[in-house]
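Lab channel / #folding
Pinned by the channel admin:
"Please post every new chain as: sequence first, then the structure tokens as a reply. Keep commentary short and put observations after the output so the thread stays searchable."

First post following the new format, from NK:
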Amino acid sequence: MSDPIQITLLEHFGFDEFRPGQREVIENLVAGRSSAAVFPTGGGKSLCYQLPALLLPGVTLVVSPLIALMKDQIDALVARNIPAARLDSTLSVDEYRDVTRRLRSGELKLLYVAPERFTNERFRGLLSQVNVSLFAVDEAHCIPEWGHNFRPDYLKLAKFADECKTDAVLALTATATPQVLTDICCFFTIESEYAVQTPFYRPNLTLLSDVVDEQSRDRILIAKLQERPPGPTIVYVTLQRTAEEVAVRLEEAGLAAKAYHAGMKDEERADRQDWFMASHDSIIVATIAFGMGIDKSNIRYVYHYNLPKSLENYSQEIGRAGRDGETSICEMLFCPADLNTLENFIFGDTPERESVAGLVRRMLESDDEIAVSQYALSNAIDMRPLVMRTLITYLELDGWIEETTPIYSQYQFIPQQSSAEILSNFDESRQQFLKAVFKQATKSRKWFTIDIDQAARETGSDRMRVVKAFDYLAERGMMELKPGGLMHRYRRLKSVGDPDAVIDELCDRMKRREKRDLERLGDVIDQATAEGCQVSRLGAYFGEPLETDCGHCSRCLEDSAQSVPTEVARPQPEMIEGIWQRANELRNQNREALGSPSRLARFLCGIGSPKLTRAKLTKNPLFGAFEKVPYQDVLNRADQL
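Reply from TO:
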């Protein structure tokens, strides 16, 4: 056999054959051609960059949003004697130092990082010293702003790929409509002929849907779990508290169930994931924090206790079932009462005009060079951090500002040697400089803290000299170093003549996003309740309708759609009036956090914000009192106050 790709597949990964689409993508990359891969969940996307990494001369940089996914893949690669590592916040100083050494020496073939890692000035400097042969971007659907999981940090990856002077880019995703795939290819300058998309349809998945009400949903779910043969099961819910409550009810019914969500400690989540992976009949009740990167091939059931936010989310989540090719059931329990909660999440990402105006003033009406703490700015303008980063990205895309190299405003450090031992390594002039810098540090119980800009001013030194000094001491093992106080820096590119016009455009943009997200939710409702083959309908959304009906979804089996109740249970009128009276009293006591009608409405609908958190109002019994009432109805009543 003289085919290096086939030889590598067998010798390093133990496979005789490729899955559909894999070889085509790999051949493109080995030839230096950028490519896109749209494979269904479990379709073998990771091999598309892992195998080329062994055939390319430099390192393959893998950008992934999930630390858990990185860990699992790296463990599997190392077990195959493939040199791979990651850089993330969980590494110790010694581990970080070892990874950077192996990267510089050319020993590593794959390095995994999160997109946020590129805000680290030390990391970007490190990349400039190495040969990056392949720049692989997982979850590439996060790039388009009309994608279902837009992440602003992803928009800058094309620029970073250019800075790395990489030979090729690989964009991977399991969920991309035709428009989103076109946008991904444009973003990374991938020619359309090198975009590889494998068939969406998986005949072993049975898609079912049932219209249920709140009172009967638990009973129906428990009955289905008890009637069907046991097997590994995921029950997806929207809220963390729902995960806990449903898991308890399933346990009380004699089922082996545990909750999983992002609010748990890392150790507890890891224990529950390990429990699920090792069991043949376990049930995990989870938010969407669970599932991505879970390599369990025999998941027999996926239930949606609550509706997914979009058909892209739905497709990803059901894609975790039946990866072994055996029949698996994916069932959606459509409860109309869930719609308000999902809509409230969407409304919660549409900021107030006052908050947008505060952002524009800070970014466009101050100095030409500005440095901001996104955490502090988010609190100051009362806007969710992700929403704020999205608006800043819009300002960048519209040419108002340009992000420059981020910096850390402070370092925390623990000396590993005495001051005398550290200073003995340097000549007299450098000793004097280090002594002056060390004097600017303050000590807590364990860590020393130093404000870098202040240290530079007080010592009359350039800021970069202070940074390089600490980096040098950390690399030589003389101190343990922990950067903090990340400051994002921006350069204003042009003067703003009419701030109101910019504010209006940003508000309109967010309103358009709100409209798109509501339409996506409507697509989910149609998927659950419309006439016709549900599998073909889902495939059509992703550009691949079936030529004939599947024969094994709810519509094909029942031959009729279920009606959707129009009436949803609401609080009794007397109870509503009591809530409004107490809410008005609370508003008068907390004008800053609840003063405007929209802030009061969001509070009552259970939509959090930085100001509500800071005022500890998310713990108030009234928070979320109207979470089952349409947001617009609550806002209209708040306007009357």
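NK: The chain has 28 helices and 19 strands.
TO: also worth noting, The first helix runs from residue 4 to 13.
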